Amino acid sequence: MRHKVIIIGHGRNGKDSVAEWLSRRFGYTFESSSHYCARRFIYDALRVPLGYSTFEECYADRRNHRATWAALIKSYNAKDPARLAREIYAENDMYVGIRSNLEFEEARNEGLFQLAIWVDASERIEPESKDSFDIDISKADIVINNNGTEEELYSRLETLFSLS
Q: Is residue 150 within a helix (H) or strand (E), and if so which, with residue range?
C-alpha cells in the first residue's frame, strides 16, 4: 500500500511544484485542493455572487478571494472536519493545500496520511492571513526550503528522496 502524503504551506509557496515533482518521480497522484473544491462546490457557490461565467474564471480568481474560499471549505467540513481529506484521498495519494489546523488534526487522527510536508518560501513570499490558513509549520514531518530557484527546489527534493 502506498503511503498518503499531505503537503502544507502558505499560498504560492510551491506546494503544487513539490506535488508535481513527486508525481513525476514516484507516480503519486494529486489534484490541488483548490481545484478539487472549485470543481465540487466552490464554483457553484460563487458563480452568481461573483459573476463568474466559467469554472476556469472562478479557479483563476481564487487568490483574490482566499478568505472566502477558506470559509466555504470550513462550512463544507463543519460537521466532519476530515470530510474533504477523506474525499481527496479516496481519489489521490496526496492532499495538496490543506488550510485548516482542525481539518489537518482530524485527518492525522484518522490516519488518513503518513507524511506531512511543509513547503516554505517565507523569505520571498509573505505568509497569508490567519483567516485563510491557520496551520503552524511545527505540524510538518519535513520542511522543504523553497526560498531559492526552481532548480534548487528540485535539487533539494532529489537529495531528500534519494536518502531512502
A: helix 150-162
Nearest to 125 by CA among 115, 133, 114: 133
Write the pLDDT tens digit of every residue in 108-123.
Answer: 999 999 999 999 999 9
C-alpha cell at 31: 489534484
d(C-alpha 140, C-alpha 117), whole Å: 5
Contact indicator for 145, 36 with CB cutoff of 8 Å: no
Of 11, 30, 9, the C-alpha closest to 21 is 30
Cell of 11: 499560498
Locate 111 and state its grid cell. 490516519
For 27-149, where are the alpha helices, taking DSSP H only?
Answer: 33-37, 43-46, 55-60, 66-76, 83-91, 101-109
Tell me which residue has cell 526552481: 150
Are 106 and 85 within 8 A, CB to CB?
yes
Q: What is the pTM of this model?
A: 0.92
Report the alpha-carbon distance of residue 34 to residue 20 in Å, rounded. Answer: 15
Cell digits for 117? 510536508
pLDDT tens, position by position, 51-82: 999 999 999 999 899 889 989 999 999 999 99
